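Table 4 source record.
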Amino acid sequence: RLNCLSECQNRDGGWGYLPGKETWLEPTVYALLALHASAAHAEAFERGWRLMRAWQLPQGAWKPARRVDEPHWSTALCITLHGIRGIYDDSFRRGVSWLLGVRGAEDNFGARIAYHFTRSVVDLEPALAGWPWLPDTSSWVEPTAHAMFALKMAAKQDGRVELRKRITLAERMLFERRCRDSGWNYGNRNVYGVDLVSYPETTAIALLGLKGTRSTQLHKSLELASRMHDETRSPLAKAWLTIALQANGVAAPLGDSALTPDIGLTALQVLAANRVFG
């Protein structure tokens, strides 16, 4: 899989979602996380690292693609990669500061007033704001969990009270939006009075964000994730669940699976096999 990632690298140093496709930041960072510890692929890593660093915007966020000059949720992945490498320079600090300044759009006065009249539609507490996919939009589970994981890594070097408070608020947000079965849906637990089902990938990413959380509330979620891990036939779900369970101290073998052209999935399988996050 490492050889596959190296061979599929684009000329600009990045990766697309599939081999030969346009470079995007998300698959590029996943590929770099997979390659960073491999001496045999150091050259491919350095090419990708230079590209990723060059895509940081002046305000500290990273853009998602060469032709899209807008801040993006995958900034959290770049911060995580810096932390994995132990590089806490100005680029890292600017990324952390930008991430701290982003909140879901539900956490403002107008949105709270609107929510007061629509509580029967979506059951959530707007003050518990997480992170959106794009700035000025509503919070969702996955970008919130990615941001939490990145900031927890940043907190090892950055002692700001603001950072700790934001992590605690995000933890409360994820527990508040957890589904009845103790897993997570994409955004909320209940809509129009109907309990939503949880999904394996989203549950796994939420649990990765909650790594290190000292709460008995995690027990049932980890039990659910273990059952999902044993039952799923999705290679993507298996990889994410393996990563999340390992990160929380639960044994979870990745198992065998066929090589895939999906760059992100290939990288995640390497991360799971090498226990990069746990």
